[in-house]
Amino acid sequence: MKLVEYEGKEIFRRYSIPVPRKFGILKLGEDLGKIKIDKFPVVIKAQVLAGGRGKAGGVKIANNLQEAKEIASKMLAMKLITHQTGEHALTVEEISIEEASEIKREIYISVVMDRKISSPVLISSMEGGMSIEELAKNKPEMIIKMPIDIESGLMDFQARELAYTLKIEKELICQFTELAKNMVKLFIEEDASLVEINPLAITKNNSILAVDSKVVIEDNALFRHKELAELPDRESSDIEKEAKKIGINYIGLDGNIGCMVNGAGLAMATLDTIKLAGGNAANFLDVGGGANVEQITKAFKIILKDNKVKAIMVNIFGGIMKCDNIAQGIVEASKNVEIKVPLIVRLEGTRVKEGKEILKNSGLKINQADNAWEAAKLAVELAR
Ligand code: GDP
Ligand code: MN
């Protein structure tokens, strides 16, 4: 689960990581008047799930109320394309207003899982502000990596070593080591997969401030963090949210062939097969182990909510569930849902002969295929 900047900073506050003073959050349709600002300049920032907002116009400084109003009204509803969004622009629906900081120096610091060493690693660089991907490519020697023991967290000697390498001023070393240790503590306690501060600012009046935040929480650990699980889901589309509610594993994609498959592995293989046949899937959908009438009906409904879908390919392997039961399910479900696009079904497994017979005699217009490759080719053709 990815958090937006101001949500990440709320967690920073809980872990005593210093952040700029927040005046408020403004949502689309709200007026800046609702936020009390008693100090200028302020920094106004687009709260979207992508980095690189600065260069794309999503971070602006306002010196007075008039400027703040102009920037806020322009930024809300603006479409933001940053180097991280690809060509899909993000609509800015929320902005944050904070006290602007006078930045003397920018440092990069993050904690991330390193799968190779099966432990978190702290990554840091004196050259903050810019994208770490670029730095890793052009000046890899500027990046410091420090493995972390999850039992003891960041040790004092590690934090101090880091402070010296980053050439932190003497009077700020204590502040810095505390911050680094708290970041690691946050990472471990909140089951994060990424905690990033870019930039960590040294301000002109000599304090350390997390000017930006990026926090990603491991989805599989959300049950341990009720307050985080309750935050709005900003990553899923409306259809994905609905699918989640009814317990169907669904991810929307860009193509036009809707897929209904049982098992995540077979679902992935189906997407590949469609691609190989020259088409593109509209979704990943795993109906789960118990592909019964109810579940199949729900799945059809979900697939058809996406109006890009021009054909549906069902690829089900009858293992525990027998093919004749599944076929019965598909027939029943097709009566419950009006399927206006071509339906291609490939069944395989236990009692497949009986299953195919049921589909054939159902009186419904179902295109049957003997294998996944034939089904995919047919789906691509019929979706055209
Ligand atoms: P990002 O581009 O999405 O990573 O957004 P950031 O929050 O990191 O902001 C981008 C850049 O804007 C930072 O690297 C800073 O250089 C600058 N910036 C952000 N906030 C402030 C601020 O309060 N004061 C000043 N002077 N610069 C800021
Ligand atoms: Mn940043």
Structure commentary:
This protein has 384 residues and is α+β, with helices and mostly antiparallel strands. It has 3 domains: 1-20 and 102-235, 2-Layer Sandwich (D-amino Acid Aminotransferase, Chain A, domain 1); 22-100, 2-Layer Sandwich (Dna Ligase, domain 1), CATH 3.30.1490.20; 238-383, 3-Layer(aba) Sandwich (Rossmann fold). It is built from 13 helices and 19 strands. Strands 1, 8, 9, 10, 11, 12 and 13 form a 7-stranded antiparallel beta sheet that branches. A 4-stranded antiparallel beta sheet has the order 2-7-3-4. It has a 4-stranded parallel beta sheet with strand order 15-17-18-19, sandwiched between helices. The chain is elongated, with a radius of gyration of 26 Å. The mean pLDDT is 94. Bound molecules: guanosine-5'-diphosphate (GDP) and manganese (II) ion (MN).
Helix percentage range:
25-40%
Unreliable sequence segments: none
- The total domain count is 3
Name given to the CATH homologous superfamily of the largest domain: ATP-grasp fold, B domain
Gyration radius (Cα, Å) is 26 Å
Beta-strand residue fraction: 25-35%
Describe the main β-sheet briefly.
Answer: 7 strands, antiparallel
In terms of topology, how is this protein built?
Layout: E1 2-3, H1 5-14, E2 22-27, E3 42-46, H2 53-56, E4 59-62, H3 65-75, E5 79-80, E6 90-91, E7 94-99, E8 103-114, E9 119-125, H4 132-138, E10 143-147, H5 156-165, H6 173-189, E11 192-203, E12 208-210, E13 214-217, H7 226-229, H8 238-245, E14 249-252, E15 257-261, H9 264-276, E16 283-286, H10 293-305, E17 311-318, H11 323-336, E18 343-349, H12 352-360, E19 366-369, H13 372-383
Parallel strand pairs: 15-17, 17-18, 18-19
Antiparallel strand pairs: 1-13, 2-7, 3-4, 3-7, 5-6, 8-9, 8-11, 9-10, 11-12, 11-13, 14-16
